[in-house]
């Protein structure tokens, strides 16, 4: 039989007891339940209903609460609430668009908090848009129709066929499948879908061709440098001298450079690993000619319009946009040097110097020099280098300056 009594609460500030409505208590299948209601009239009504319902259930004259229901809420709502959720029916109404939007919203939060690179988010948007377009072409929108081994397996087969016909690359397909898998795994963790399709076990396993070695010869470097503008020459020197990518150049600050020694001390933009490097005289000279006023901005280099050299933003509709003035300038340089069809990008300068350091006598003797130049993890280097001024690395990079033989003229 259900009963009720006045309920009280203790005010944390005054320590006094205050009224908190009425507490309804009852026992069902050996367990005690209680809920609080606002007033005595409601407590009387709920107690009477629960008492009658429990008795009728015991006599077999009324249905018990459905399996999986919230017993307390079911009785207090007089059988109207606390019912178990039908996940199958719920999932059947969800669409792939709603899931993708929710997933991308969480990825965007990761970007805002600094846990995800904007470029990774941009890639997710592009790849998932591609997957949604495929679903639309197949006239599939409901999640229940899409998250099946048959549909997802057919999508993978279609992409593999596109590789075989030369319509797309294995790298692109791998990115698409990996992104789709990550999105749906997220939906599974959020309990939006009940099970992961078995095809996901090796869904994104795509054999990639061995990439060709991408380096520049000394002759190619000199040919590019000869026709480059002073600003683009500086970009090339920063790549060859310091092992910088576009983002490293765009985030170089006045405070990173000690002009008395021409040394650069900073954390690499991508990895956060500390780097110590020394500017070649040519690099230092061009940097001083092109650098910003330190009284106006901390950044060493800005575009001609005063904007950041590399920036990421989005349109009013949320579409990600990346502006890379360095890559654009370099593409124009390659066209000017009759190398427009050359697929090697700006980052190859970094790789070229690393390769030349690795092939040197000291580089073969001390292979960690390459990692030190590239700003890779240095956990294994502390015991290897006792000299904190990186004298050995400076000597090797000076040799590169002699090898490339690039001047300000």
Question: Could you outline the blueprint of secondary structure elements for this entry?
Answer:
Blueprint: E1 3-10, E2 17-28, E3 31-37, H1 40-58, H2 71-76, H3 87-93, H4 96-112, H5 118-137, H6 143-146, H7 149-164, H8 170-189, H9 218-227, H10 230-242, H11 246-250, E4 257-258, E5 263-267, E6 274-278, H12 281-290, E7 310-314, E8 320-324, H13 325-336, H14 348-359, H15 361-365, H16 368-374, H17 391-404
Antiparallel strand pairs: 1-2, 2-3, 4-5, 5-6, 7-8
Helix pairs in contact: 4-5, 5-8, 10-12, 10-14, 14-16
Task: Note down, in words, how this protein is organized.
The chain has 409 residues and is mainly alpha-helical. It has 3 domains: 3-84, no CATH class; 91-202, DNA polymerase, domain 1 (Orthogonal Bundle), CATH 1.10.150.130; 218-404, Orthogonal Bundle (hpI Integrase, Chain A). It contains 17 helices and 8 strands. The strands form 3 sheets. A 3-stranded antiparallel beta sheet has the order 1-2-3. The protein has a 3-stranded antiparallel beta sheet with strand order 4-5-6. α10 (230-242) packs across α14. It starts with a strand and ends in a 5-residue tail after the last helix.
Number of domains: 3
List the helices and strands in order: EEEHHHHHHHHHHHEEEHEEHHHHH
Compute the average pLDDT. 85
Shape: elongated
Percent of sequence in beta strands: 5-15%
CATH fold label of the largest domain: hpI Integrase, Chain A
| CATH first level of the largest domain | Mainly Alpha
Taking pLDDT < 50 over at least 5 consecutive residues as the criterion, the unreliable ranges are 87-91, 379-389
Task: Write the CATH homologous superfamily of the largest domain.
Answer: Intergrase catalytic core
CATH architecture of the largest domain: Orthogonal Bundle
What is the CA-atom radius of gyration, in angstroms?
33 Å
Sheet with most strands: 3 strands, antiparallel
- Terminal residue distance: 99 Å
List the strand order in the largest sheet.
Answer: 1-2-3
Number of strand segments: 8
State the secondary-structure class: mainly alpha
Count every helix, treating DSSP H or I runs of 4 or more residues as helices.
17
Relative helix content:
40-55%
């Amino acid at each position: 039989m259900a009963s009720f009594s006045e309920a009280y609460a203790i005010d944390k500030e005054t320590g006094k007891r205050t009224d908190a409505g009425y507490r309804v208590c009852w026992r069902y299948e050996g367990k005690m339940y209680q809920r609080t209601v606002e007033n005595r009239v409601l407590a009387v009504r709920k107690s009477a209903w629960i008492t009658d319902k429990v008795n009728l259930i015991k006599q077999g004259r009324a249905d018990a609460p459905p399996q999986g229901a919230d017993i307390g809420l079911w009785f207090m709502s007089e059988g109207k609430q606390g019912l178990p959720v039908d996940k199958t029916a719920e999932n059947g109404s969800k669409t792939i668009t709603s899931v993708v939007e929710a997933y991308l919203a969480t990825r965007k939060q990761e970007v805002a908090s600094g846990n995800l690179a904007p470029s990774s988010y941009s890639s997710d948007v592009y790849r998932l848009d591609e997957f949604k377009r495929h679903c639309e072409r197949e006239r599939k929108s409901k999640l229940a129709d899409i998250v099946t081994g048959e549909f997802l397996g057919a999508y993978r087969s279609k992409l593999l066929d596109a590789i075989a016909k030369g319509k797309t690359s294995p790298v692109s397909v791998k990115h698409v499948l990996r992104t789709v898998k990550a999105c749906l795994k997220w939906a599974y963790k959020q309990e939006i879908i009940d099970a992961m399709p078995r095809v996901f076990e090796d869904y994104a396993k795509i054999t990639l061709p061995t990439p060709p070695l991408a380096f520049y010869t000394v002759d190619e470097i000199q040919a590019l440098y000869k026709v480059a503008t002073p600003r683009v020459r500086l970009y090339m020197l920063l790549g060859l001298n310091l092992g910088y990518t576009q983002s490293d150049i765009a985030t170089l600050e006045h405070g990173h450079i000690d002009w008395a020694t021409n040394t650069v001390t900073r954390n690499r933009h991508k990895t956060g690993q500390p780097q110590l490097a020394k500017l070649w005289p040519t690099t230092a000279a061009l940097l001083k000619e092109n650098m910003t006023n330190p009284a106006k901005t901390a950044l060493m280099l800005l575009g001609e319009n005063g904007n950041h050299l590399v920036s990421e933003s989005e349109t009013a509709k949320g579409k990600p946009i990346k502006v890379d003035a360095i890559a654009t300038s370099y593409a124009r340089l390659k066209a000017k040097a009759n190398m427009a069809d050359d697929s090697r990008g700006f980052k190859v300068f970094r790789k070229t110097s690393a390769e030349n350091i690795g092939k040197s006598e000291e580089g073969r003797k001390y292979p960690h020099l390459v990692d030190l130049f590239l700003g890779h993890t240095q956990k294994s280097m502390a015991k290897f280098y006792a000299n904190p001024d990186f004298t050995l690395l400076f000597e090797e990079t000076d040799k590169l300056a002699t090898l490339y033989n690039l001047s300000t003229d």
